[in-house]
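in:
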């Protein structure tokens, strides 16, 4: 009879069998921390130069062309290693590198969104009231309205003039630029407001942006204050009031991205959701060399309003792009899609001890815990989710562990507390295997959100490992 092996100690057993929770800092070397800090310098520069979906696409096109990507031509025959991009109306973009196998065994997709919660204008926005000039707005995405008052705002966007020419606008970002703001009542007179529930204390019609207070010098003329603003806009951009009808103007927080904390471990900025996944997904494809399967990074618009519309992923634009790639290789698009895999790269909630009652601590994602994996999203009994298949979760686990990617798994919050969705289901509905993976965020959807530098870097490492897997 063989000799019985010495019994394992409880400590050894625990190490082997249990799932320990350890701060990510202790799982990585100082060298990795340094790499994370360095990576985030590039990320902060991206945050400051691309605050809207259009600016993010412009950024991606420039970066892609520098790395040898060319505009996609569906009639062209591509060879392994060729790099292409498809710019969808300047608001969404697909970038692809043709794999050694092409797309016959499926493609690998990383999909992030580049639209952020913000303040849009109504079609007829301009008015004056008590000798001040304002813009009426219609907010975009899920915001807590009170957070958007009494902060500096910048104006970004595009205006299509009557003659069809377009004007780009960006005011409030350069030093010395004027900025804008939505005013709030002083606490001394805020008794009525303070008595209201948070959700109804501010209405959409309260969010008007202050843009001026001086009239044209003529005491007889009507709308002299509004006219003075239009006079300035006409001088600068050659536009008239009616041109604001054919415009997409977005007011966003005028803050710059900045380090947070004495240890500089965090980044505070507007619009981490979801540029904190978009930037790593872009960097992952820019730095991907000779993939086996064709890899695609999709940076999409309209996630924050439900992905509908022709620049959102509930439309066909990504499917058409993949179909064109497939057909150029003589493959049936639906067969390619059915074998494809995808990381739905979107943020998740980071556990916040001040609101502990909204989270389930054991199944939450934590700052510095690494890339956050969510097997499913949705609300009220997983409503509206595409619950990833265990086999695909298993595959991603192996890829991440083999590549030294720090990752964690969690849910957004407590089961009955609410919930949310991502683009995952729209891609999964094409018969693609999809898993939600992204960076944990504090103060998500606030004008100023916070993420961990280590987690941002792990997003890059994770998405790259997914593309590089043999
Ligand atoms: Mn998001
Ligand atoms: Mn969001």
């Amino acid at each position: 009879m063989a000799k019985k092996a010495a019994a394992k100690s409880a400590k050894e057993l625990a190490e082997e069998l249990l799932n320990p929770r350890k701060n990510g800092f202790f799982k990585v070397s100082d060298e990795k921390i340094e790499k994370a800090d360095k990576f985030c310098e590039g990320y902060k520069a991206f945050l400051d130069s691309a605050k809207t979906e259009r600016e993010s696409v412009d950024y991606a096109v420039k970066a892609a062309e520098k790395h040898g990507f060319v505009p996609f031509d569906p009639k062209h025959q591509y060879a392994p290693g060729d790099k292409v991009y498809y710019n969808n109306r300047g608001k969404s973009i697909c970038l692809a590198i043709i794999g050694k196998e092409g797309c016959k065994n499926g493609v690998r997709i990383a999909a992030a969104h580049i639209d952020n919660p913000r303040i849009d204008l109504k079609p007829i926005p301009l008015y004056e009231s008590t000798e001040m000039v304002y813009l009426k707005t219609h907010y975009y995405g899920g915001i807590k309205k009170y957070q958007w008052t009494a902060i500096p705002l910048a104006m970004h966007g595009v205006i299509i003039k009557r003659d069809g020419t377009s004007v780009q606008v960006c005011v409030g970002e350069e030093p010395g630029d004027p900025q804008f703001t939505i005013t709030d009542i002083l606490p001394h007179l805020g008794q009525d407001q303070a008595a209201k529930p948070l959700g109804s204390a501010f209405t959409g019609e309260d969010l008007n942006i202050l843009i001026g207070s001086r009239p044209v010098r003529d005491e007889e003329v009507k709308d002299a204050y509004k006219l003075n603003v239009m006079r300035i806009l006409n001088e600068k951009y050659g536009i008239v009031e009616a041109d604001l009808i054919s415009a997409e103007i977005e007011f966003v927080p005028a803050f710059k991205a900045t380090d947070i904390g004495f240890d500089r471990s965090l980044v505070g900025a507007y619009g981490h959701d979801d540029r904190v996944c978009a930037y790593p997904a872009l960097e992952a494809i820019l730095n991907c060399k000779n993939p086996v399967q064709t890899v695609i990074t999709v940076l999409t618009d309209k996630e924050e309003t439900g992905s509908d519309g022709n620049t959102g992923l509930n439309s066909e634009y990504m499917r058409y792009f993949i179909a064109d790639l497939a057909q150029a290789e003589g493959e049936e698009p639906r067969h390619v899609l059915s074998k494809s895999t995808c990381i739905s790269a979107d943020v998740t909630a980071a556990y916040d001890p001040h609101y502990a009652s909204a989270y389930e601590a054991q199944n939450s994602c934590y700052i510095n815990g690494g890339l956050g994996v969510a097997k499913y999203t949705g609300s009220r009994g997983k409503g509206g989710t595409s619950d990833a298949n265990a086999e695909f979760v298993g595959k991603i686990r192996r890829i991440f562990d083999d590549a030294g990617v720090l990752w964690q798994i969690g849910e957004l919050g407590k089961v009955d507390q609410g919930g949310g969705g991502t683009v995952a289901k729209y891609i999964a509905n094409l018969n693609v295997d999809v898993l939600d993976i992204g960076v944990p965020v504090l103060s998500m959807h606030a004008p100023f959100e916070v993420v961990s530098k280590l987690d941002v870097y792990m997003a890059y490492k994770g998405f790259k490992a997914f593309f590089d897997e043999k």
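note: The first strand starts at residue 70 and ends at 71.
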